[in-house]
Amino acid sequence: MIRHLVLFKLNEGVGRDDPRVVAGAQAFSALGDQIEELRFWECGWNITERPVAYDFAINSAVEDGDALKRYLEHPAHQAAAARWREFGTWVIADYEF
Fold first, then answer.
1. Are 37 and 63 in contact (CB under 8 A)?
2. Does residue 96 contact residue 8 with C-beta atoms inside 8 Å?
3. Are 13 and 87 in contact, with CB atoms under 8 Å apart?
4. Can you give the pTM of this predicted structure?
5. Residue ranges in the chain modelled with pLDDT below 50
6. Angle, to 10 degrees, between the axis of helix 19-30 and the axis of helix 75-85?
7. Taking the alpha carbons of 82, 88, 91, 97 in that order, is the dihedral positive or negative?
8. Distances in whole angstroms, Cα of residue 87 to Cα of each of 26, 69, 79, 95, 97
9. Which residues of 50-80 are buried (b: 16+ CB within 10 A; e: fewer)?
10. Terminal CA-to-CA distance of the chain, rounded, Å?
11. Which helix (H) or strand (E) holds 70?
């Protein structure tokens, strides 16, 4: 299994209530039901206000590298990621467990 973690940071001046951000969060929330390669899916907003904290997180799992590739190339994932490019940046970690 591969754990796929993503942490998002909203760009300066962009708030959670921005309509683009709301739509982006909804797009990622829906992926768990849209992409069969996902074995585990959760996402949500950070609840702390520490300066080093990111704003939004995805914690997911897939079977193997091929499944990760299919997930990343899936049109629904591509569309959700494209939304976030408008207002945020992110870091990713993928590891086997």
1. yes
2. no
3. no
4. 0.93
5. none
6. 160
7. negative
8. 15, 24, 14, 27, 32
9. eeeebbbbbebbbeeeebbeebbebeebeeb
10. 6
11. helix 65-73
